[in-house]
């Protein structure tokens, strides 16, 4: 059998490969045009203080409203952006969009809380990446205290020297820094001090496992972070039980579908006004 279908197998394999390649290629081509076609949209997800139950921050999560495929999630197009140089343009777009949003909410008297922006590790490889962010912030005249960068452990490890001076400069200006997906990489706790991390985000997978082993990993992260004066937020909170345990363990903030899904500007505005 193998003998007779050998050729066909090869054909199938090669067609699948081509299709995948073609799809990536088309996505990249479309993403390039998405900027001036205004297809990128910012969604926001609130972060709540565990004790006061108030909204104390927002996370900006980008979506792509593709003219043909509809809403595409970042898990699908961020890798495409990272493989091409579009990630630089995308990061600038998101940073600018968030700064403009803050200014608009400021003007309309909507409750102002810090907004965090996810930054891909690759962005930090750009020369003078900190100047780029600094310039946008200055041009729009946004209070740096209202901005937070969400970085991942791999950003800290790759290209450390290039990264540290920029991050410390922005921190001095008032921007906050949180370590996203904490516990999934290899970062040493020493990094929390070295990079002056304000908040660690417990990764969703630890939140999911919270009820197993009495949440030993989550508790461990919370206690160590507090020992170092670093706040802790848990992401992916989907149940009341998880919320109860997290507040019992002293986790400072929570974020997840239980409290609110990421939503567009107008929905968030209503939520923020309600809390004002
Ligand atoms: P992340 O920064 O860890 O963001 C959290 C992701 O978990 C978001 O998915 C959010 O919608 C989702 N989430 C929040 N609460 C829950 C929950 O209770 N249950 C479940 N199952 N999921 C929840 P999203 O928006 O699809 O983003 C995925 C990832 O894409 C983000 O992970 C982030 O790494 C990246 N990303 C998003 N926006 C941007 C951006 O503007 N720039 C860059 N470079 N990356 C971004
Ligand atoms: Mg994040
Ligand atoms: Mg995360
Ligand atoms: Mg995550």
UniProtKB/TrEMBL annotation:
It comes from the Bacteria. Residues 24-276 form the EAL domain. This is EAL domain-containing protein. It comes from Neobacillus rhizophilus. The lineage of its organism: Bacteria, Bacillati, Bacillota, Bacilli, Bacillales. The chain holds residues 410 to 685 of 685 of the full protein.
